[in-house]
């Protein structure tokens, strides 16, 4: 889904509803929330470390009490390990950092977390039309290619949902075709 809506119109709420829909898979038949840590990952990509940190604080406050583990993955957060990433439910990152992590892997842990990605949230997607857009384009392309691999048919990545938002998307049809064809 690609959404173009003005600032303050609820794009973040849309992201949160998508996260809650994903987490609803952990509700058992008797209505109990039985969370399996790190098994269904959300990746939130924002263009700046400041926006990543803002969402990290907000989502830790809202989702932390449910045991949902959020992890910042930016150029300044070098304290992550493959274990942190494996256990994370929501990875909040910048395009450049996630491109590097998904392109080169993580020391000692590889990309074992990658197949657990079930939801990709892209904030400020209009940056695809920016010089920094190459990293974001590489991420979307990589996820689309890997998700089609028959070897991961039973993994969450094979059914990954992409949601991209921005206040300004002059070429929304082209963007929709790129992300979802």
From TrEMBL:
<dbReference type="InterPro" id="IPR014001">
    <property type="entry name" value="Helicase_ATP-bd"/>
</dbReference>
<feature type="domain" description="Helicase ATP-binding">
    <location>
        <begin position="1"/>
        <end position="181"/>
    </location>
</feature>
<dbReference type="GO" id="GO:0016787">
    <property type="term" value="F:hydrolase activity"/>
</dbReference>
<keyword id="KW-0378">Hydrolase</keyword>
<dbReference type="GO" id="GO:0003678">
    <property type="term" value="F:DNA helicase activity"/>
</dbReference>
<protein>
    <submittedName>
        <fullName>Sec63</fullName>
        <ecNumber>3.6.4.12</ecNumber>
    </submittedName>
</protein>
<dbReference type="InterPro" id="IPR027417">
    <property type="entry name" value="P-loop_NTPase"/>
</dbReference>
<dbReference type="Pfam" id="PF00270">
    <property type="entry name" value="DEAD"/>
</dbReference>
<dbReference type="InterPro" id="IPR052247">
    <property type="entry name" value="Meiotic_Crossover_Helicase"/>
</dbReference>
<dbReference type="InterPro" id="IPR011545">
    <property type="entry name" value="DEAD/DEAH_box_helicase_dom"/>
</dbReference>
């Amino acid at each position: 889904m690609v959404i173009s809506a003005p600032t303050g119109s609820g794009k973040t709420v849309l992201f949160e509803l998508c996260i809650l829909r994903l987490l609803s898979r952990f509700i058992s038949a008797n209505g109990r929330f039985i969370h399996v840590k790190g098994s269904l990952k959300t990746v939130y990509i924002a263009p700046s470390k400041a926006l990543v940190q803002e969402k990290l604080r907000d989502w830790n406050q809202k989702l932390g009490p449910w045991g949902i583990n959020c992890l910042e993955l930016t150029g300044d957060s070098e304290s992550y390990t493959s274990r942190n990433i494996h256990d994370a439910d929501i990875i909040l990152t910048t395009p450049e950092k996630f491109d590097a992590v998904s392109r080169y892997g993580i020391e000692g842990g590889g990309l074992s977390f990658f197949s657990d990605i079930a939801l990709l949230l892209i904030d400020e997607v209009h940056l695809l039309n920016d010089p920094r857009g190459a990293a974001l384009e590489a991420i979307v392309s990589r996820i689309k290619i890997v998700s089609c691999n028959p070897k991961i048919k039973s993994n969450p990545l094979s059914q990954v949902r992409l949601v991209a938002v921005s206040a300004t998307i002059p070429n929304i049809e082209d963007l929709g075709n790129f992300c979802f064809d």
